[in-house]
Input
Amino acid sequence: MKVTRFVGCCALFSAALAVAPQAWGAGINMSNQVAAVPTTTPDLTYAAEKAVNSVVYIKVTTNSKTTTMDYYDPFEDFFGDIFGRGNGGKQQRQYRTPEQKATGSGVIISTDGYIVTNNHVVGGTDEINVKLNDNREFKARIIGTDKTTDLALIKIEAKDLPAITIGSSDDLKLGEWVLAVGNPFNLTSTVTAGIVSAKARSVGANGIESFIQTDAAINPGNSGGALVNTKGELVGINDMIISQTGSYAGYGFAIPTSIMNKVVDDLKKFGTVQRAIIGIRGSDVSAYIDSEKDKGNNPDLGTVDGVYVSEVEDGSSASEAGIQKGDVITAIDGHRINKMAELQEEVSKRKPGDKVSITYMRDKKSYTKSLTLRNAQGTTTVIREVDIDDMGVSLTPLTNTLKTQLNLPYGLEVTAIRNGAMEKAGITKGIIILRVNDTPMRERKDFDDAVRAANMSSDRTLWIRAITKSGIKKSFTVDLSSDKKDNKK
Output
């Protein structure tokens, strides 16, 4: 089985199961029928018209890069020993990767330009261009990415955009009709249809996953596109397929909005995801039982479904609540947990410091305990807030041409600036930032990482070394501890 992600992938399509209404129950006694059988398929035109303008076409460029790699040369190791050079045969070789271009999709979630897409579409790229359904084009910048859920948040500088309405993925039902809107094979504004074939599906591709599974095709160019319900509400972000060959084989997977909402909120506020954890390792009860039977064991856990706890981390929330290896978690805050994907989804909705009640089975008896969720750093508080957007600057890595002209190895050019901390410090459009707190600036992520690190330091200051295109060296000091309201007019 092959999990396939296309850089820019995901479109959903399925043939409707057409059943003639008169065929149902013709000549059959229907007195035992439990529920009425629908006789028509829903009209999907409203949902399509409502959603199509909220989905964008994303074009990304990854610049040519030179990478230095170590390798072992036994010939050099032999002569190194003879002549006393003592390098152990360690050599270095440089490799140059060509410029790469790819496409994908994204979903406008706010009128002021925030767009959700997949991490595998924009992560690690140097230039992002966004084309709206009305053919307007904008350069975008990354607000934050999250490999664990394969989500990313980008932003364009525009107003009054057609933001999609965000719906509840929790309310989706098996068999419910859904639409996908995206740009498969560079065919912009494509709308296709399918049904929900499973929920809370785990396929082992992401660190955290509870996919909406549909009987839908995913094709190159539609990753990051919208999965919408019949009301035109966003319920998922299209992500991947599973097949034997790498091409469509009947199933597509989308990240539910229940996970997306928390990730987006964190990326906007902090630039990174504040991930809550309870501190256990485990698996579906059914998977644990099958594994034990393969070993010749016959565990007696009764008929309960849930998450079998195989390990409890010392000092974790679970440990402090008294959860032990061998327990089976069956609910969080009263929400039934049948498998690990559902547990991950419930925890991923919450923040470090949130209190939850955990229901679990031990020796066929049910217990409920309260615990406080921790984050990955082990504390129960979120990382100090840093709104990357408040920096008020768009940065673009230097092109190879500009590097040659200015004789610079790297740098970030200020391509746009508005009211914010950077402008307040005296930085203007056209300035080339070389280092921030002594960290070389090669890509936008370097700048964002430096801002986050400074926000968690004691002085909360950015020391910026820069240069103008005419060769004049500049230095700036950006105070991150000032009230954000002072940075906005």
